[in-house]
Design goal:
single chain; alpha/beta; binds pyridoxine-5'-phosphate
């Protein structure tokens, strides 16, 4: 059965908007665990725009499930991964100007370099994943690198502007999953998945984990809005007039 791993980056995005203490992504992660999430994902970006180093440390020491660390293949991040020892490291491409991860990691021609980068991480017993597009060449390169998992980028599928494009992207992902499994890779999916577009994957076999953040945090704002306003109205209604 596939499982859900919740990305809490955008709780931190909200906190960093005021550079304060709330909302705390670590508390959000604990609630996600209580609700049944199989694990928690954070992307520690080079520019620290949302998740901070101390969040990663706190998550590692307080989570009862698994911490997944998304990161760029840099020396700084490698050090942090080796120090933190998360359950899984997923390598992602990173550009400073992008709003979010824009596409899969290009593994072609980087097989040796990425294999070497992951070697000390694997030696620590950390599971590894590569976030890649559903392209045959990328999947073959990932297999050569020797990662246990790949995460197929579902962003093009999620962003498709019409049904035909979306169906084409869906077919590419399904073919990618099949090909990866033939090569012995385990497959996760992520990026842009929401309460509607995820339904297409219900009958697709061989998916280990769904990595979902933005749509869950977005929905959390609205399912919590009613209670949050009610609680403030209750406080103010007891004030002197
Ligand atoms: N997987 C990867 C590799 C990502 O970079 C992200 C976004 O940080 C996600 C999954 C989650 O995407 P979303 O927030 O759109 O659900």
């Amino acid at each position: 059965m596939p499982v859900l791993v919740v990305n809490v980056d955008h709780i931190a995005t909200l906190r960093q908007a005021r550079l304060g203490k709330e909302p705390d992504p670590v508390t959000g992660a604990h609630l996600a665990e209580l609700a049944g999430a199989h694990g928690i994902i954070v992307h520690l970006r080079e520019d620290r725009r949302h998740i901070q180093d101390k969040d990663v440390e706190l998550l590692k020491t307080t989570l009862k499930t698994n911490l997944h660390l998304e990161m760029a293949a840099t020396e700084e991040m490698q050090k942090i991964a080796l120090h933190t020892v998360p359950h899984m490291v997923c390598l992602v491409p990173e550009k400073r100007q992008e709003l979010t991860t824009e596409g899969g990691l290009n593994c072609l021609g980087r097989e040796g370099e990425l294999k070497e980068f992951l070697a000390p991480i694997k030696a620590k017993g950390i599971k590894t994943s590569l976030f890649i597009d559903a392209e045959k060449e990328q999947i073959e390169a990932a297999a050569k690198i020797g990662t246990e998992y790949i995460e197929i980028h579902t962003g093009h599928y999620a962003d498709a502007q019409n049904t035909e494009d979306q169906q084409n992207e869906f077919k590419k992902i399904v073919a990618g999953i099949e090909f990866a499994r033939e090569l012995g890779l385990k497959v996760n999916l992520g990026h842009g998945l929401n309460y509607h577009n995820i339904l297409a994957f219900a009958k697709v076999p061989g998916i280990c984990e769904y990595s979902i953040g933005h749509s869950i945090i977005s929905r959390a704002v609205f399912v919590g809005m009613f209670k949050a306003v009610q609680q403030m109205v209750n406080i103010i209604s007891q004030f002197v007039s």
